[in-house]
Design a protein that fits this description.
By secondary structure, this protein is an alpha/beta fold. Helices cover 31% and strands 19% of the residues. A 13-stranded mixed sheet has the order 1-2-3-4-5-6-7-8-9-10-11-12-13. A hairpin with a 2-residue loop joins strand 9 and strand 10.
Length: 370
């Protein structure tokens, strides 16, 4: 298939990148050092969307390695994934949800990825036998949904995806199954040309038990004719689409851009779901993270330009203790609420911290609870 050839021919080296952008010998040396630690993969389709004449092009920033990635501040596991791993490749942080990591590859590698520690690298975090994960889910009847992620599960063959759905769909206490993917904007041909994938979703996305695809679209320029076509094919197959966006410095930290993105999502049939505070990931934090106070202001200004449907998303941080919504700033205090919690006693808990205008994460704020 064409998409498989496209995937195989992705740009993966600095030497290949030099065909698109001028780099000095010093830059080449530095960037090679970056990709030795965190590999590069960019689809030629996505490269075609980049404005190479703009040194600050937001799409370029998301996928092209930068010397800023040599900055080691932050952590490789900001959300406590290791402590929530119950078996290799399966995490169970929230009682109702099981997360399965099925691959360490993607159609393109986001430079801001919160799983930067494993993407494109040999990893002991990827599921080896799907049947073991199925058994765990069968035995834990409190689990009512499964999120299949990675990496990007849509870079796997349709045959493998079919096995996932076949085994999970017979577990009676599962209400729905989710896939997390950026393929609709990184490699839309994977969806456009594969008729079998559409048939597969039609088979398993039923009126009483839907398949969800959680897209990650971070900038309105990612929404192209091709991506809309791919998204429409998913919708026609009975899949429900939600989107999560990461708020990023130099990408979408502008109320007009963020509002345009949410409005466009609704217009093409995708429900805005989360806007995530960029996690303080090592080799990511300094280059991409916006301070919490600024992020809140951006989100609130963007919401003034949105209707009820396009501002359904929540602005949250995926903290090791749970998904924490950033709900307000009053004076020198910033207010939060647990949207999801690892500890059930924290569900819905409302709390505040002393505002620090440089803080980008809860742990950087002074304790001052209600």
């Amino acid at each position: 298939m064409i998409w498989q050839k496209e995937f195989k021919n992705n740009i993966t080296s600095i030497e290949q990148l030099k065909e698109y952008i001028q780099l000095s010998q010093k830059e080449v040396k530095q960037l090679k050092k970056v990709v030795e630690r965190h590999p590069m993969r960019v689809s030629k389709y996505y490269l075609s969307l980049i404005d190479w004449d703009d040194p600050y092009d937001p799409l370029k920033k998301m996928v092209i390695p930068s010397i800023e990635e040599l900055n080691l501040s932050g952590s490789y596991d900001t959300s406590g994934e290791q402590e929530n791993t119950k078996l290799i490749g399966l995490q169970h942080k929230y009682s109702q949800t099981a997360l399965i990591l099925v691959t360490n590859r993607c159609a393109s590698y986001c430079r801001f990825c919160f799983r930067k520690r494993m993407i494109g690298l040999p990893s002991e975090e990827i599921l080896h036998k799907f049947s073991i994960a199925v058994k765990y889910i069968e035995e834990h009847k409190e689990i009512n949904n499964v999120l299949i992620s990675g990496g990007d599960p849509f870079v796997l063959s349709t045959r493998i995806i079919a096995k996932f759905l076949e085994k999970l769909s017979y577990i009676p206490h599962l209400n729905f199954i989710r896939f997390g993917s950026k393929v609709p904007v990184y490699l839309p041909n994977r969806i456009i040309e594969d008729e079998e994938l559409g048939k597969l979703f039609k088979k398993y996305s039923l009126p009483d038990r839907r398949i969800y695809v959680v897209t990650q679209i971070d900038h309105p320029r990612e929404i192209t004719t091709q991506s809309i076509f791919a998204i429409n094919k998913l919708l026609k197959s009975g899949v429900i689409l939600n989107n999560q966006t990461v708020l990023m410095k130099g990408v979408n930290d502008d109320p007009n851009i963020l509002a345009e993105l949410q409005n466009r999502l609704v217009s093409i049939g995708i429900n805005p779901y989360y806007v995530f505070q960029c996690r303080p990931v090592k080799r990511v934090k300094q280059f991409f993270q916006v301070p919490l106070y600024k992020g809140y202001e951006i989100v609130e200004q963007a919401k003034r330009k949105l209707n009820g449907h396009s501002k359904r998303f929540r602005y949250v941080m995926s903290h090791r203790t749970g998904k924490i919504e950033i709900v307000g700033i009053v004076g020198d205090e910033i207010y939060f609420k647990y949207h999801q919690a690892k500890d059930p006693r924290n569900y819905g808990k409302f709390f505040k911290r002393r505002l620090n205008k440089t803080a980008g994460w809860l742990d950087e704020l002074s304790l001052k609870e209600l």
